[in-house]
Design goal:
This protein is an alpha/beta fold and 250 residues long. An 8-stranded parallel barrel has the order 1-2-3-4-5-6-7-8, surrounded by 5 helices. Strand 1, helix 1 and strand 2 form a beta-alpha-beta unit. It binds 2-phosphoglycolic acid (PGA). The site of 2-phosphoglycolic acid has 13 residues, from strand 8.
């Protein structure tokens, strides 16, 4: 079904100071010229979320957090709760990014509990999955992604909005991307797995591709079957590149 809008989400990771707010203003200006079927979201570091949310106010652009804790509140030094993101005005929260899985040892079960915390707070979780290069090379990509989906998506997501980002670990920040055939194979498998578990609700779920998306390859990648947008890292820091990706995905 092609009624799903495209979502182009920018994951700024640990980048961005107040000097980046000019880029946000340029993104908001550019977003006004995008077709209404393309939505933009900016996920800045938590320190900038309040200012970025103020800068996008009144526009079609939304914001998201890059992570949240699974608990509602409590003694978790350095962490941020889903309610805190919601209060600041975020619409999305990225959970299970491979950098969180690798740097912080987050298991699928932890990712699922974070996604659930996001859902309970009224956020839309962007749940990330993706294979390593070793897994790709040994031909276990579909198996790995299926396992991650099963255990990283909470059952409660079946009644709520959520987004899946397929991000091959070996494509993140490397300039390497899978072929369109490889992207299609995984996205079609993800849709089938969601359908088997959640029925027709699966048709509402936006499936993003992420990993070295740039203006030069977005046109090709964003029109692969079952690709409903992109999760963009490096190229989301500059308004010109981010907007060019959004335009190419229309
Ligand atoms: P990249 O990152 O676009 O810089 O490869 C994507 C991501 O990690 O979400």
């Amino acid at each position: 079904m092609s009624e799903r809008n495209k979502l182009v989400a920018g994951n700024w990771k640990m980048n961005g100071l107040r000097t980046s707010l000019g880029e946000v203003r340029a993104m908001v200006e550019g977003a006004a010229n995008l077709p209404s079927t393309v939505q933009l979201a900016i996920c800045p570091p938590a320190t900038l979320l309040s200012e970025v949310t103020a800068a996008i106010s009144g526009s079609s652009v939304s914001t998201g957090g890059q992570d949240c804790h699974f608990a509602v509140s409590g003694a978790h030094t350095g962490d941020i709760s889903a309610d805190m993101l919601k209060e600041i005005g975020a619409r999305y929260v990225i959970v299970g990014h491979s950098e969180r899985r690798a740097d912080h040892g987050e298991s699928d079960a932890v990712v699922a509990s974070k996604a659930l915390a996001g859902i309970k707070a009224g956020l839309i979780p962007i749940i990330c999955v993706g294979e390593t290069l070793a897994e790709r090379d040994t031909g276990t990509t579909l198996e790995v992604v299926a396992r991650q989906l099963t255990h990283s998506i909470p059952d409660e997501a079946g009644q709520k909005s959520f987004v899946i980002a397929y991000e091959p670990v070996w494509a993140i920040g490397t300039g390497r991307t899978p072929t369109v055939e490889q992207v299609e194979e995984v996205h079609v498998a993800i849709r089938a797995s969601l359908k088997a578990r959640f029925g027709e609700h699966a048709e509402t779920v936006q499936l993003l591709y992420g990993g070295s998306v740039k203006p030069a390859n977005a046109g090709e990648l964003m029109h692969v079957r079952d690709v409903d947008g992109a999760l963009v890292g490096g190229a989301s820091l500059k308004a010109a590149d981010f907007l060019a990706i959004a335009e190419a995905s229309a």
